[in-house]
Design goal:
- InterPro entries: Gal_mutarotase_sf_dom, GH, Glyco_hydro_31_C, Glyco_hydro_31_TIM, Glyco_hydro_b, Glycosyl_Hydrolase_31.
- By secondary structure, this protein is an alpha+beta fold.
- The protein has 13 helices and 43 strands.
- It has four domains: 186 residues, Immunoglobulin-like (Sandwich), CATH 2.60.40; 240 residues, TIM Barrel, CATH 3.20.20; 79 residues, Golgi alpha-mannosidase II (Immunoglobulin-like, Sandwich); 100 residues, Immunoglobulin-like.
- The strands form nine sheets. Strands 25-23-21-20-19-18-17-27-26 form a nine-stranded parallel sheet.
- α6 crosses α8 and α10 packs parallel to α11.
- It starts with a helix and ends in a 6-residue tail after the last strand.
Amino acid sequence: MVSVQTYLSFLLLLPTVCCGYSNYTISFTPEYGLVISTGNRRIVHNSAILAGNHNTTVTALTNSSKGLAYSLITPTIAKVELNTFSAFHGARFTTEPDAHFYGVWEYPFNYQITNKDVSFDLKGVGSNVGINWVNARAPFFLTSAGYGVYADTLRMGSFDFTTPGQAQFIFNSSTLVYYIILPTQENDYKSIIEQYTPLSARSEIPPTSGLGPTFWSDDFTQDFHGSVSNAQENIYDVLNHLYDNEIRATSVFADRPYGTGNRSWGNFDFDPKFYPDSKGFIANLSASGIDFSVWIANRGQLGTELYNKSLENNWQFVTSVPPIGGLGPALNLSIAAAYDYFEKRLEYFPSVGVKGYKIDRGEEGEMPDYEQNIQMSLFLQLAYASMVKKWGPSHFYNFARSAIDRSRAVTHIWNGDSHGNFTGLAYSVASGIRSGLIAFGIWGSDTGGYTRQGELTPTEEVWARWMWFSAFSPVYELMLGTGHTPWYPPYTQRTVDVLKLTANLHADLTPYIKSYAYVNHKTGVPIIRALFLEAPTDDSTWDVGDSYFFGEQFLVAPIVTEGGRRSVYFPVGPSEKYIEYFNKTSVHDAGTTADVFVGVDSIPVYVKQGAIIPRGDIYQGNAKWIEDWQAFLTIELFPSWGVPESRFTYYNGEGADGKAVEILLKTDKESRTLRVEYGDLGVEAAVMWYFKGGKREVNLNRGGGFTELRDVELLF
């Protein structure tokens, strides 16, 4: 009965299949592979099913009756099960040589969003070009040939895309289940992600405070200014400057050091030298509208409680890598007692008001590589459990750099240690796109980069460009301190001004971002979207790694090189025309490319015809300078006679307590009438109509309703 209920729940999460496109059949071929076809058209060629006693000696199975089962479990998902006496299992897929493959890793190998010429294990990526330790991953790929494949395992394996038109994976497992996922409508790659994520996991809706702007330092115990003498006062100094400059913020987190013990981690506490009154301090932050979180990792620092307890109970992994600078081995969390101990000790932090963890490490040799996926999934789960017990779902924010897809429901992602230069920024944009393609939708990067060498790293231009990218990212987090703080030398007022512009813009876009976080939670479809997800019939979009759709409404083209110039391509399909978002005068036809220049006070951003963009001040955070603050929502409308109807699902509230509300924009060219219909938006609200030569604001009724306009000249 349980398995039936689970299967029914899975079916309820799947998208509706379009009539006529789901008449798929699966069959075993004379060449000992599998083929999925619709009519006379072959969609998938699973050209070899692999088994062997070593990953370098696997061969194709030649008997369909031994250890192989396959069937269509839904009209668009085939399940393949392997269970032989071999130690390794895998599969090979073959298509046209010019086909593109995506997914598996967040890291953009060779600065590309495709997997061309990439062969690597399903594990964390170490120090590399542009970003170190950018390690979200999933045993899932999709291809421009029109399907996706998901290997349902936590075991170590490898993927190989070095042969044109071919993808292969091999896992160290005597059994293996993988799924072949077809679109519910032709060219609907989003529906592949939507069907894949219930098989693995979907992201929890984050709290509004988790979206940022969030401010943090790699070490709040140094770089003091004025009368500051400890980390606690240093954080107050940051918040005071944000307040004085009226820069919006929702949260702060403390990286190490903050506790006692070797390298400040392992005793599950706050060091009174750094935080003289940690509980009172955290309560003060909360009262001022700021959530506080801390760094954690599964590493037993030498000499700490965590190290001694795990050594005493034989919970530590024995590794070939000696502890570096006091960094000890990881605990084997497959041991139930070790897992329970760690979860119980972490409960100290929420008990004093901490509302989330930055979850680090997991791929630095502290455990055997083959354990990475299993151990990180366990650690992320226990970290989540220690928080959810205190705060409940969606009321705290955990984020990690190393995560496997089954952990999406318990953590969000930041992209590791990006380099504080234009290369780091460019790679971060590409990694944000790639993160979305493996359905880690709630994602952010260290604005300005983490790896900072030299006094003026990042430069003011790099930092400004990155701030604009973070404004149009799901999460805006900015690293300051340790000689790199916008309002202290060597930085100038220009950097503070850009910080204020971008942080406050991100805060104002919170209604839009939250709404797409809800979509990500319900469907798995990301917020940062590769161009081809929205424009799948436009061949020019397949390998674009420096621009993206932000939700469905925005086309974002960050500046990732020095000087402020770049070309922007406008994809065919989502819209016939695009308009520049900030000045609302420059209109571009789909299928064209424009050369643009912007200063550090802007970013190339465009909206589609018929765009609906909810913005507004719906979460106060630290904005206590606003007297008698009240939430207010503004719905920006960009009507076009060429788009008779467009919709937006607005999400209001926190987590499961929130409510989805439909907003409908209609245009009738014949009667020259515009109409917007809306449900109960939960707060005071207005619509802002944009026309040629101006705009018009109309207040909306509480509880829902509609408003109409006639005889106006539209932007498009």
